[in-house]
User: Fold this.
Amino acid sequence: MATQQSRAAARLMIAPAVFVLLVWMLIPLCMTLYFSFADYRPLRGVFEAWIGFKNYESFLTSSSFLKAVGTTLWMVAGILSITIIGGILFALLLDQPMFGQGIVRILVIAPFFVMPTVSALVWKNMFFNVDNGLFSYLYKFFGMQPYDFLSQAPLFSIIVIVAWQWLPFATLILLTAVQSLSSEQLEAAEMDGAPGIKRFWYIILPHLSRAVTVVILIQTIFLLSIFAEIFVTTNGAFGTRTLTYLVYQRVLESQNIGLGSAGGIIAVILANIVAIFLMRIVGKNLDK
Assistant:
């Protein structure tokens, strides 16, 4: 049993970490909450400490709010669809014996370590550029007019960019789950004459359900705050303005700190609601 001295020593050792956590997270959150009830427009020299819920009312009733929420949900759903389906396929492929298997796994996982800004710049200039991009050269090679992805299919383009970054994460989690599957079950099903599709549908996929729910939970929490990819590629134009980007525009571009702070608090509340909802689903799935 821990003595009183050991408990005191433990509290003393974790005190610096707790202090940094409070300074790093709690103070900015409290300041955002404070400014959300104020009319604060520094460029115009306006500051009124208390205006009630006017900022929240203005942000929620704005025509841009529902569009931004819808864009965010569509983007998250599209990215999750690509990463889950692609992650399962890559996990099954990488589980098969092949030459240079370790190198191939490293190459597949490598995009996850690329910074979002760098990834967006690479896709924007090397692949989606209408004049010098790889896809444009392919279109010209086959005698077709180059396609401007970022202006004609902007939402799809951002989904592809972000999915490319998160696909390695899903692959890594799902590959671990695939490797934990007992080979005896698959061998027994194969000996009983079950085709590959049925083995996948009735044995492999149910075994991956827990890993899939964990991937969905973790990715959704991070994907709700997509910003860098949008800022670098479309700058919020062409219907790609998410809730996070809308808050950025209200704070920095419109210089309305109070309205942007209210939007930030709303975004945090919505993200926590989604996270709690997904955690309940994940918890039920993991208890099975």
